[in-house]
């Protein structure tokens, strides 16, 4: 009888565990399905808000990109391929490409002047941004930074004002008391820290996209040649202070740094 009870208890636990797993699986599937819908809606919304447009790329380049999507087994990402419109070209430059969620935007004139290996690396780089869901992660990091900055600013300034500035505040006329706040110093500093965090993460994403593109292609030649082209197209400002600040707060690493990182992969050169 005791053995039967033990078996019944074990059976009940197994059944309950399976039910919980089933519920979690359904919830997870629903969650990720919901995420996909949100991503698709967000792609279209961002495209409209920032006027990226949804102009079709020419058939030749579109077929080339679709071939690479198939080559990297990324058909399940439902990637939309668009031509950069005039607004995007003015904002990001003629020699560029970018992604927003699962939307990929390319400059036709830029694609047409690239060699085969340069074009492959450019497209692979943008596809890796989509594969790694960098847009979604960037939004999450941005939201986290905004929330953290707001909370830190509120609670730290409240503590400092209460314990250190209260005496000085009481000596001021009432209408000026609210002006004396540690937030005046804290907020700019915390905002700078937040901006630094975001640009660091952006540079990490670019390096990751470069690395994954090279690994998927099995070659760094196209990447090196493309980055050399970028380097020649962008005149580096002579102002040392600007260059120093940009090295810390720029959204992209320098072309030289990216080239050196590619060479360290030690794949086909």
Automatic annotation (TrEMBL):
InterPro entries: HtpX_protease (IPR050083), Peptidase_M48 (IPR001915). Keywords: Cell membrane, Hydrolase, Membrane, Metal-binding, Metalloprotease, Protease, Transmembrane, Transmembrane helix, Zinc. One of its GO terms (biological process) is proteolysis. It is found in: Cell membrane. Coiled coil: none annotated. Residues 73-265 form the Peptidase M48 domain. The chain crosses the membrane at residues 14-35, 138-156, 176-201. It comes from the Bacteria. It is a multi-pass membrane protein. Signal peptide: none annotated. Pfam families: Peptidase_M48. Its cofactor is Zn(2+). Its main location: membrane. GO terms for cellular component: plasma membrane. Belongs to the peptidase M48 family. This is Zn-dependent protease with chaperone function.
């Amino acid at each position: 009888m005791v053995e039967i009870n033990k078996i019944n208890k074990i059976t009940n636990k197994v059944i309950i565990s399976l039910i919980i797993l089933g519920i979690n699986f359904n919830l997870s599937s629903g969650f990720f399905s919901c995420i996909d819908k949100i991503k698709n809606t967000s792609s279209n919304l961002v495209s409209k808000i920032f006027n990226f447009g949804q102009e079709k790329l020419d058939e030749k380049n579109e077929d080339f990109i679709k071939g690479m999507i198939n080559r990297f087994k990324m058909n399940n990402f439902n990637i939309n391929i668009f031509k950069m419109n005039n607004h995007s070209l003015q904002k990001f430059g003629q020699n560029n490409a970018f992604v927003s969620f699962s939307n990929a935007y390319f400059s036709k004139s830029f694609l047409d002047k690239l060699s085969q290996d340069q074009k492959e690396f450019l497209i692979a780089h943008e596809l890796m941004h989509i594969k790694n869901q960098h847009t979604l992660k960037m939004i999450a990091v941005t939201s986290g930074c905004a929330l953290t900055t707001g909370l830190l600013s509120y609670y730290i300034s409240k503590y400092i004002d209460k314990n250190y500035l209260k005496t000085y505040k009481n000596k001021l006329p009432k209408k000026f008391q609210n002006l004396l706040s540690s937030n005046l110093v804290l907020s700019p500093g915390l905002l700078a820290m937040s901006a630094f965090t975001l640009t660091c993460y952006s540079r990490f994403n670019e390096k990751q996209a470069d690395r994954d593109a090279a690994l998927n292609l099995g070659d760094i030649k196209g990447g090196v040649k493309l980055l050399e082209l970028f380097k020649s197209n962008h005149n580096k400002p002579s102002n040392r202070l600007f260059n120093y600040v940009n090295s810390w707060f720029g959204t992209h690493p320098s072309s030289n740094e990216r080239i050196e990182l590619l060479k360290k992969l030690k794949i086909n050169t």
